Amino acid sequence: MSTDEELLEDLLAGEYRALARVISKIEDRAPGYRELVSELYAHTGNADVIGITGSPGAGKSTLVDKLAETYRDRGETVGIIAIDPSSPFTGGAVLGDRIRMASTVGDMDVFVRSMSARGTLGGLSTATADAVKAMDAFGKDKIIIETVGAGQNEIDIVRTADTVAVLVPPGSGDEIQTLKAGILEIADVFVVNKADRDGADRTVQELQDMIQLEGGGGGLGGGGSSDGHHSQEVIDAHDDWDPETDETDEPEGWTTPIVETVAIRGVGVEDLIDEFGAHREYLVDSGEHAEQVRGRYAEEIRTLLREDVHAMLEDELEAAGGVDDLAEAVRQGETDPYSIADDVLDPVETCLEGLETDDRSSGGSSLN
């Protein structure tokens, strides 16, 4: 048995050291990591993946800590991936979110891993999605991803998390308008954290107005009450909906709830977890979860193809003399970038045409 096979076997057996080593191998893109991740897929699909995002200072790490503590009180195991801004020198994580997650220190059923965003658009690298698979295969019930929240475009978290909570600090009316065109639109749940501070009521109202203006995602109507929680009508709609028997009143979508929390004291955390559960139930019952997973895998395929084709093209460029020499040839007027691109892509296109010819002769398609 190879070392990687033993590593996979130990991970599936619940060995935390193996989980840590697998994630390190994934993050470092060490030799053999792709085969290892490929083996993980057969053991995934059981964990709830929750994304926590929002602006700096909104209290994300404190909330994640309290979420983990509450899930543990409910008897569930937790994996946490804290995406830190990349060090410009080492590419490593620099914030050390583990320091701010004190409630679950020493609890082996809460596994925390800080990972570098590596400058990836969206704040999440491909390695993070693979690390989620490792934790899922390990057997974690809940996997929480806390994103950078440092002004980077964080839409990519949607492709990794089943449920996305966006934290909005009190008194952030201007910020709501700024973020509205981007990160706020990905929220499955809004969280007004530090709700004991001045401006919380106003922030809740502004979010409610935005939800109503946007139509709440075409969902159960409304949003929430003035205290930041669902109205009774919304709660009843969640509880009473039966997709098999209720055809006329079937909801068209999910209405984004607003939950107020004071994470440092654990206030509102139970309510937030209940909303996560309601959203998970909605996804499964409506069929959106299956569609979500298909979309996630489709994006993974595209990403891997882009990475692999890019690597192949880099090799072709080197074989053609290297980018610098080719650029100098353009500068000298000997050629142009379009001609160079055509020349580099020519062997790839020839190869693909050959595959298509072979496929037609065999009467099938391997890439349908």
Give a nutshell description of this structure.
With 368 residues, this protein is α/β, with parallel strands linked by helices. It has helices at residues 3-12, 16-28, 33-40, 60-73, 126-138, 173-179, 200-214, 232-240, 269-286, 288-319, 323-331, 337-362, and strands spanning 48-54, 78-84, 110-116, 142-146, 163-167, 189-192, 258-260.
Q: Given the C-alpha coordinates, what overall shape results? A: globular
Overall SS class = alpha/beta
- H/E series: HHHEHEEHEEHEHHEHHHH
Largest sheet, strands/sense/barrel: 7 strands, parallel
Report the CATH topology name of the largest domain: Rossmann fold
Number of helical stretches of at least 4 residues: 12
**If strands are numbered along the chain, what order do they take across the biggest sheet?**
3-2-4-1-5-6-7
User: Radius of gyration over alpha carbons?
Assistant: 24 Å
Total domains: 2
What's the end-to-end separation, in Å? 35 Å
Given this structure, which CATH class of the largest domain is correct? Answer: Alpha Beta
CATH architecture of the largest domain: 3-Layer(aba) Sandwich
CATH superfamily of the largest domain: P-loop containing nucleotide triphosphate hydrolases
Beta fraction:
5-15%
Mean pLDDT: 80
Report the helical percentage: 40-55%
Low-confidence parts, pLDDT < 50 over ≥5 residues?
87-99, 216-238, 246-251
How many beta-strand runs? Answer: 7
